[in-house]
Amino acid sequence: MTLPRGEPGDRPTGVAYEQARAAETAQASDGGQAKPYDPLKLCVYATVALLAWLFGAWAVLGFAALGFAGYWRARRAGLTRSKCYLRDTRLVLAYLGLLTLVAAAALVLPLLR
User: Fold this and answer.
1) 81 — alpha (psi -120 to 50), left (phi > 0) or beta?
2) Within a 13 Å sphere around the CA of 73, how many CA atoms are in the beta-carbon half?
3) I need a surface site. Which of 42, 63, 100, 106 has the fewest CB within 10 A?
4) Which has the closest alpha carbon to 59: 85, 42, 91, 67?
5) Quick one: DSSP state of residue 88?
């Protein structure tokens, strides 16, 4: 597999590109023997979707709060760029905070009626 090369500013970016580049580098250092792709992320996504389906807003609240706490700690330790699609940890924190608020509202609002 050969990825496009060029000037630093005009090459593709993103998590998938970086993973492909890392796999290409690993293949070259292993004498051309590439390891098979492990679709672990797909298993994780399916498990999270199953839990969200089973537990609804409680699962969203739990995962969002857990993610927020993890990114908060990582940001305080100096992490500014993430492998998350949003990249900037401030955006990730805002996204996870919003999810936490929406999930909490979805659980509380029906009790107020």
Assistant:
1) beta
2) 5
3) 42
4) 67
5) B
Residue pLDDT, tens place only, 15-63: 666 777 776 666 666 566 667 777 777 787 788 889 888 999 999 999 9
Alpha carbons 13 and 80: distance in angstroms, whole number: 17
CA atoms lying within 13 Å on the CB side of residue 11: 12
Question: What's the rounded Cα separation, in Å, for the pair 82 and 30?
Answer: 28
Cβ atoms of 3 and 24 within 8 Å: the answer is: yes
Compute the mean pLDDT over every residue in the chain, rounded to the nearest whole number: 81
Task: Give residue 10's pLDDT.
Answer: 57
